[in-house]
Design a protein that fits this description.
The chain has helices spanning about 1-10, 215-230, and strands spanning about 15, 20, 30-40, 50-60, 65-75, 80-90, 100-105, 110-115, 120, 130-135, 155-160, 170-175, 180, 185-195, 200, 205, 230-235, 240-245, 250-255. The protein is mainly β.
Length: about 260
């Protein structure tokens, strides 16, 4: 039996615990973890019935619910800083996919704290995560409707391929239609024609600096998105979407002020 086992291992075949065989080249899944802490800046204590929920999610798809990879619910939450641990199967992590850790604290199913900025992570690096949540004002008036003009819009996704966090791609449109921003590497300028929710961008001029290939690719995809844009829209979270003539989302932006 020992000789047969050695022969199987020599040819890349290992026996499974239940007596089955793992075909050559296949890999066993590995359970891995992301650990971290959740806190907030307000000097207030949480009530004893507070609940913390932390998730690792695939946030690659624009204007679609995030796909949850791992989740931990801590009930009762206790007091900050609150430690958490997210366990997941390494086999579900895919290259070139955007992942983020998100958290919320609820009391009697009412939202008290949430992270209002994306906290992107690379699950393969397993680096500790520090999340600082923002208090939700239950009595606050609803936020004003988003406006296209005189706002710096920061790209969160271009063509469904995400963006490089350190290479900010921005878009600013004045009421006279003048357009400025950064493509990721170079500054640019253009002119927009706007009619209701319809919008088109003229050919952009830009500086001529060279950056790493990945940043230049992001900048190229951004300018291609501007050229194809036929309309815009906002979602319920106030994010801006540039849309082509067929109704397909080309880019998604958050409001940077």
């Amino acid at each position: 039996m020992l000789g047969k086992l050695a022969e199987l291992i020599l040819f890349g075949i290992a026996p499974l615990a239940l007596g089955g065989l793992l075909m050559p080249g296949a890999a066993l899944a590995e359970e891995v973890e992301i650990v971290g802490e959740v806190s907030y800046r307000e000097r207030i204590a949480l009530p004893p019935n507070a609940v913390l929920t932390v998730q690792l999610a695939d946030v690659s798809l624009a204007d679609a619910p995030a796909s949850v990879i791992a989740e931990q619910t801590i009930d009762p939450a206790g007091q900050v800083p609150i430690k958490f641990k997210l366990l997941f199967d390494s086999a579900v992590i895919r290259p070139q996919v955007n992942y983020a850790v998100q958290a919320r604290i609820t009391v009697d199913n009412k939202l008290w704290f949430i992270n209002d900025e994306r906290h992107s992570v690379d699950p393969t690096k397993r680096e500790p995560v520090q999340l600082v949540l923002r208090k939700v004002d239950q009595d606050a008036a609803p936020p004003p409707a988003p406006t296209l003009f005189d706002t710096t819009w920061l790209a969160e996704d271009i063509g469904g391929k995400g963006v490089i966090d350190d290479a900010q791609t921005t878009l600013s449109i004045a009421e006279d239609g003048s357009v400025t921003g950064r493509g990721g590497c170079n500054g640019y300028f253009s002119q927009a024609t706007i009619d209701g929710e319809k919008i088109t961008f003229g050919k952009a001029g830009s500086t001529m600096m060279a950056c790493p290939d990945a940043i230049m690719d992001q900048e190229r995809r951004f300018h291609e998105a501007l050229e194809k844009t036929a309309s815009f829209r906002f979602n319920d979270e106030g994010k801006l979407f540039l849309v082509d003539a067929q109704g397909k989302d080309l880019a998604r932006f958050s409001n940077e002020g």
